[in-house]
Each structure stands twice: as C-alpha cells, then as structure tokens.
Amino acid sequence: MTSANVLVRHPRRPIVFGALVVLLHLLVFDWLSGQLGRRREAAVPAPPVAMLAQLIQIGAPVAVAVPALDLSPKLAPPPLPSLPLEPVEVAGAGADPAPDPAAGDAPGTPGTPTAGVPDSGAATAAAGELERAIPTPADVQSQPVPVPVPVPAPVPAPADAARPAQAPPASAAPAPAPEQRRYKVELPPPADITLEVARIDADGARWNGEARLSWRRSGAAYRIDVEAGIRVVFARVNLLTLASEGTVGDEGFVPISMTEKRRGRAMTATHFNRKEGVLTFSASQARVALVPGTQDKASLPLQLAAIGRGDPRQMSGNIAILVGEDRDANVFSFTVAGQEQIDTRLGRLLTWHLVRPPKPGSYHSRLEVWLAPAYGWLPVQMRNVEASGAVTTQTASNIVIKEPGSQ
Description:
By secondary structure, the protein is of the alpha+beta class. Helices cover 17% and strands 33% of the residues.
C-alpha cells in the first residue's frame, strides 16, 4: 500500500501532526523569550534604595549634649517615608497626658515642678524655655520621624538665691572674752628693777644690754614704765618702751591705757574702756570684751607677783590672764613649773617658775617668768624664746623697793 493511499484512508493524521509541530514551536519560542527576558533584567542595574539606620543603646539612658540642628531650607533633608515608630518620651515630661488647655495649668508651674529641675526662679525660667523648644507627645505622634532634641542639664539654683539678704551690722560687736578665774591678789611693793639683757639671735649672734622695770603708786592710780635696749660699742640703743597707766583695786592692776614704741616703728596705743566694757587698739579695728583681771604687757609680770603674794597656794596648775597687746588680745595661760633656784647678781634666789608655752593661732613664742618671794614676789628673771629660735633673757641685777607715794 502506498503512502497516498494511507493519507487518503486517514485524512485526520496530517492535521494532528501539524498541530503538534506548531505547538512544539510555540513552547520553544515561549521558553526562549523567558530566558532572554531574565538576562535583560539582570543586566539593568536596580535603582538605589534609601536605607535608614538607627543606633539603639541598651541600658540606662545617658544624657548627651547634642548641638542644635540647623534646619534652614538650604540644608533641610529630603522628606523621609513614614515609619511605624514608637512615640518619643521627652525627658522631664513624665507619663502624664497633655494638659487640657481649658484647665489653665501648664507644665512647669510652681505647683507641678518639672522632674530633675529644682523648683526655683532660675530653674523655672529655664524649664519654660525648654518646654517651648521640645515638642509635645501629641506632636511627636503626628510626626513620628525621630529628630534628636538637645536637652540641657538641670540648671542648679544659686546657693544664695533662696537666702534672704541680711543687712550688715551697724557696728562691729566686740569679740567675746572667755571666762577667767578669779584670784586673790596683794600688790607687790613699788620698786625699780634693773635687769641684764642677754640675747642670742637665730644665727648665733650675741647681744648684751640692759632693761628697767619701774612702777609707782599714787593713791588708787599707778604707772608702769619698761625700757629695754642693747649696748653697741659704747652706746646704748633703746629697742622697746612700754608705758601702762590705770588704777589698783580688788582685782589687782586695772589698766586704762598702754602705749608701745619699738625701734623703727610708730607708737601704738591700747585702750581699756571700762564704761563700754571693750578693749580697742590704735593699730587695728579689733574690739575685745573686757573681763575682770585683764592686763597689758607692762602690768602682766607685776600682776603675777600680786597673785603669788595674795595666796601662794594659787601657784599650782594653770594661771590664765587676758592680755591686751598692740593689735589684739589673747589669753596667756601660764603653767606653774614649781620652785627653782637661779643665780643672779643679787645672789642665789629661790623662785617660782611660770611657763607660757606657744599657742597656735595666737602667739608663737615661749615666755617664762621667775618670781622671788624674798623680794616681794617681784619678777627677777624673764625669758622669751621666739619661734625663729632667738632667745632673750633678762635677769635682775639690782632691786630698789620704794615706799608708796615716793618718787
């Protein structure tokens, strides 16, 4: 059988065969077109996609001073797409909702101080400026883009802001004087005492001189004069002159005024104002309250003699006396070291030895006094040890007892 016969007998076969061939071509073309499309898409670069990065610190927030942003039109960033962010919590706003404008209260009023800011005038003004610069929670929810907001540190109120101003006192009140022990006293006899002066400077240099202590009494009034100097070749150079005047009474010597003149310095005066009960000084503005028994530097050795004559049993423990000097007054506290024999031009004398050690903040020298009961408890030796190490010793070489009222 020929092929023509076969085609004549089966007319549908060519049609089915042609349809299959066409379908296969379509499938091949479709697959090729898909492969060619993907290659073209891979060759075309994708457009850049804007990415947002945000640093989140884990742990307690730390306040960092951030400079204010300049959002002028020329530097304004392009608009960013809305992101689903959590509302920003502004420091100091708290968790309370925004106040109702009709209520009339605003955050930062004196009744509701802002957290972390002191409730004072300066802090309230700073909180008001901060409140205008920081958006409210409602604004943050409507504009969820996070913008760093500079939050200044709390402004402390000045230390003196809450303190009421105090007017200065009209006049300086005298410094209070400590209570002093009362002593039984008996004045020593008026006398002229001549003393030899021996000084050793801190560098070892030695000097010799002479001093004189003289006191007179006329009725209830007294006067004490002290002079001390050194000998240079054949001349005598006066270094110190003291003059004390006042009255005598149950408390012993009662100074009214004392003048002091040192070589190379101007004369100074110390005034004992008994009516006002105050001690004043020409060389300073100090004012010290007077107490019974207050002395000056000239009357002090004789007041110690009056205490020993009043009752020798008082020569024990400490003897404290307020002493007015050229610029201020200090309590001289003497310790009774006991009895001691010393050698003098008058012979070997039995004395009571009193020591005033240095007192930090008041005086820095050590003062020692020896009183001789055989000579009416008058001072027969005095020694001053300065902080520099210089030592000045005055030892009696002659004592002349005077009768009251004699010159």
